[in-house]
Fold:
Amino acid sequence: MGTHNTATMKEGAKSDRSARFEVEHVGGIEETTVEIPVGVTVLPGKNATNRTSFLQSIMAAMGSDWATLKCDADEGFVRLTHQGETYERQFSRTSDGEAICRGDGLLDDPSVAELFAFLLETNEARRAVARSDDLHDLIMQPVDIEGIRAEIRRVVDAKREINDELATIESLKRDLPDLEQQRSELRERIDSKRLELSDLEAEIDRTSTEIEESHKEQDRLEAKLTELRDRRSALNDVRNDIDKQEQSVAALKQERTELEAERGDLMSAVEGDDSDVDARIERLRAEKRDLNAKISDLQSVITFNEEMLDDADSAVLNAIESDPETMGDITSQLIERREEVTCWTCGSSVEKSDIDQTLDQLQRYRQEKLADIRSIESELEDLKERKRALEQQRQRRSQIDSQLDRIEAELAERTDRLQQLRDRRSELTSDIETLEADVESLRAEDFDEVLELHKEANQLEFDIETLESELESISEEIADTEDRIADADDLRERRSELNDDLEDLRTRIEQIETEAVEQFNHHMEQVLDILEYDNLNRIWIERLTASESTDDETVEETRFELHVVRSTETGAAYEDTIAHLSESEREVTGLIFALAGYLVHDLHGTVPFMLMDSLEAIDSERIAALVEYFAEYADYLVVALLPEDAQALPSDYNRVTEI
Structure:
C-alpha cells in the first residue's frame, strides 16, 4: 500500500484525530494499512483497484455488515484505531461456505449511517430520487413512528385517568359539606344522649339510695343489670364483627370469581407453549442470515462486473492518452465497443446492453432480497412481541394462582372466624335471655322504677355506642375525602406535564418531517447555485398531509412530493418532472437528499465518516464543488474518484493512491 498525503497538518490536535485502518482479506484487498486524517481524503484510481473494497472496510469498522470476505480467504479482519480506542471486526467462513462477521464496530447501530452517511453507488437514499421511491418513508425509516403513536395513546390514557380522578374529587368536594353536617349532627346527638344518660344515672343513684335499706336483694339485682348491660354491649360488638366478616368473605369470593375468570381467559390464550414461536424465530433468523449472505455475494458480483464493464471503456480512453495520433482508430473502437464487448466470464462477444440488462436484473434481485429481509425483520418483531406477550400472560397466571391460594387461605380463616362469632352470638343471646329471666325473678314492686331506669340507661349506652361508631365512620370518610382533595393540585400539575408530553409527542414526527424538507430545500438551493446547471431553477420537496381515521384515533399521513422547476430561453419558469432530470442532476439530487437525512438524524454528531464513490455521472468541476460542500458536515469525508475526476480537486486534500 502506498499513501501520498499532500495535506499540510498545521495543528497537532488534528493529527492526533487521524484514523488508522488495518485491513486483511476484505473484498479484493489482500492486506493494507491506511491513515485517514480529519478532512477530505481522495481515493483516486481506475476501477477494480480496491477503492470500493476499502470504503466497505470503513463501513465494517463502523459496524456495518456490507463488507465481504475475500473469495479465496477463510478469515479476515478490519481494525480501526480512532481517538485512542480500537475497534475490530473479524470475518470468517463457516464449513458450508457462509461468510460471517463478528466483533463490535464504532457504532452500536449502523443502519442509519448505512442510509445517510455511506453514500456508495447502491446506497438506498442516494438512489431514491432516480427510482422515484417514497422519500418520506425513507427519511422517516429510523424513526419509531408506531412507538411514538403507542406512547401518545399511553399518555392520553394517563391523562384520562387523572381527569376522571379530578372529576371524582370535585364531586367529593361538593359532598364534603353534607358529610361535615352529618358529623356535626352526630356529635350533637351523642352529647344529648350523654347528658340524658348522666341525668338518668343521677336518678338511678337517688332512687337506689332511697330503697337501699329496705331491699336486701338490690345488690344482686344491680349486679345482674350490670352483667345484662355488658352482655348486650358484647352482643352488639359481635354483630358488628359478623357484618364485617360477612362483607370481607363476600368481597373475597367476588375477587376469587374475577380471578378465576381471568385465569380461564389466560389459559385459553396461552394454550401450549411458545416452542413453536421460538422455532419460527430461529428459522427466520436463519433465513435472514442466508439472505444477508446472498446479498453480500450479489453485491460483490455487481461491483466486480460494473468495474469490469467500466474498464472496457477505460481501455480505449487510455489508448487516446498514450497515442493521440490514433484518434481515428480509437473512434472506430468506441463505436464498436458501444455495441459489443468480450465477456470476461466465458470469453465470447456479447452485446453491452445485454450485460447492462443482466446487471439491472441483479440489482432488482438484490432489492427484492433486501425487501425480503425487511419483511423477515418485521415478522421477527411480531414474533418477539408475541413471545413477550405469552411470557407476560404466564407470569400473570402465576400471580393469579398465588392470589387464589392467598384468597382460599384467607377465606378459610375468615369462615372459621365467622363461625366462631356466630357461636359467640348464640351464646350471648342465650346469656341475655337467662339474665333477663333472672332480673324478672328478682323484681319486686319496689324495684320497678329503678329497673326501668336501668333498662333506659342500658339502651342509652347502646345508642351512644352506635352513634359513636357512625361518627368514626363518617370522620374517616371526611379524612379520606380531604386527603384526596389535597392531591388535586399534584394531579393538575401532573396533567399539565402530560399535556406538555402529549404536545411534544404529537409534534415530534411533524418536526422531523418539516426539518427534513427544510434541510433538503435549503441545501438543494445552495448546491444548485454553486453547480450552475443550465435552465434548472429549483428542485424542492413539498410536504403534503392527509388525515386518516380509524376506529380508535385519527392519524395524519404525510408524503413528500419532489418538484423540478426549469426556465425557457426567454426566462419563463415551468414545472418539469423527475424523469426529465439528467443523470448528473439526479445524482446530485440523491446526494443532497442523503445529506438532509444525515443532518436531520444528527449523524454529524455520532458518525465521523461520510463515504462517496461512483460519481462519474457528474463532471469533474461539479464533483470538486460537491466534495467541498459535503466536507463542511463530516469530520472525515472519503471519496473514491477516477483519476481524471480527482485532478479537479484541490491539491491540499489527502490522497491515498494505492490500496
User: Anything to note?
Assistant: The chain is about 65% helix and 15% strand. The longest helix spans residues 352-442. The two ends are 5 Å apart (CA to CA). Confidence is low (pLDDT under 50) at residues 1-15, 314-321, 326-338.
